[in-house]
Amino acid sequence: MSDQLKKFLSEDRSVRLESVHMQQTWQTAQAHHTYPPSVTALLGELVAASTLLAATLKFDGSLLLQLQGDGAIALMVVECRADMSIRATVKLRERPLPIQRDLQSLLNPGGTAKFIVVLDPPKNTLGRQAYQGIVPLEGETIAQALEQYMLRSEQLETRIWLAANNEHCTGLLLQRLPLQGGNQQAEILSADESWQRFQRLAETLSTKEMLEVTQETLLHRLFWEETLLTFDARPITWQCSCTRERVADMLKMLGRAEVEDILETQGKIEVACEFCGQPYLFDGVDSAMLFKSISPGAGKSVH
Question: Which long-range contacts (CB under 8 A, 24 or more apart) does 281-285 make?
């Protein structure tokens, strides 16, 4: 099954419908990490949510969703770019997970957690300035937190269903679109009825069904009686910006003396990307080559 996001509109164009399902992309995201199942599920839900929200935006940049709290999970970040490539990571504190392993227990036991949404324009944009929205982390699930954010910040009624395990992450989004000026009463009533009907259909979803049933079958089960306007499906891929060359540049910035000191102590240098966890290994020969032809001031960060 290909990893993709599908987009639809209701026949009266008053409801946006999006469905996402990821398997290979999601498993690639976990390749260099071993998270507890409850953390994996939360991260997978946030990954699915990022693609659903990014697809609603007319924005040629990156959407970042960030959960920052005082619990066992210190930070959870997902970035979805305009081409639907994603990357994601979690930072855990060195403490046992709570008995209750829901969103609030894992991230917000002290009530200080924040939900942050960042819209980051492309780097070559004139007058480039990122938009950042910060709200308290409310709701019992990531879906509820995002629904509240969309209503507060975008004034858009939005319903989201998310599910994830170590094999799949998936999501469904319904969004009520604003009516244009001059609508007749009949159109307003039609939009109201469509919104209520689509919600009733989607509310029959179960987590088990979302994880075990194919995207095509699920959509057919829910909306087979609806006439939907269909858009081209969009493939989703995993893409972290780390490279061996960037790690090499970081080591050059440390300087020859410090690199040689690490080699003498450890026999090798192993650097893992702070975001995706991809390991990069440099032995004595690799390290010597770093300084064979180095220009002063050269160097870049890993990200």
Answer: 282/247, 282/248, 282/251
**What stretches of the chain adopt beta strand conformation (E)?**
4-10, 15-22, 62-68, 73-81, 85-92, 114-120, 131-136, 158-164, 169-176, 228-230, 234-235, 237-238, 269-272, 279-282
pLDDT confidence of 293, banded at 50, 70, 90? low
Residue holding tokens 């999501």? 171
- The candidate with the shortest Cα–Cα distance to 59, out of 77, 83, 78, is 83
For residue 256, what pLDDT is reported?
79
Distance from the first to the final alpha carbon of the chain: 31
Counting runs of H as helices and runs of E as strands, what totals does the chain give? 10, 14
The CA–CA distances, whole Å, from 101 to 84, 109, 115, 300 equal: 29, 11, 18, 38
Burial 19-47 (b: 16+ CB within 10 A, else e): bbbbeebbebbbeeeebeebbbbbbbbbb
- Residue of 138 and 273 predicted with greater confidence: 138
* Per-residue pLDDT at 181 exceeds 70: no
Q: Taking the C-alpha atoms of 153, 155, 157 and 160 in order, what is their torsion angle to the nearest 10 degrees?
A: -20
Find, among 184, 180, 166, 149, the residue nearest to 52 by Cα. 149
- Output 100 or 268, whichever has higher pLDDT: 100
**In the predicted model, what is the mean pLDDT of residues 97-124?**
90
CA 148 to chain centre: 17
pLDDT in the model for residue 154? 78
Contact 251, 243 (CB under 8 A): no
Residue 302 has pLDDT above 50, yes or no: no
Could you say which DSSP state residue 71 is in? Answer: S
Alpha-carbon distance of 67 to 76, in angstroms, equals 5
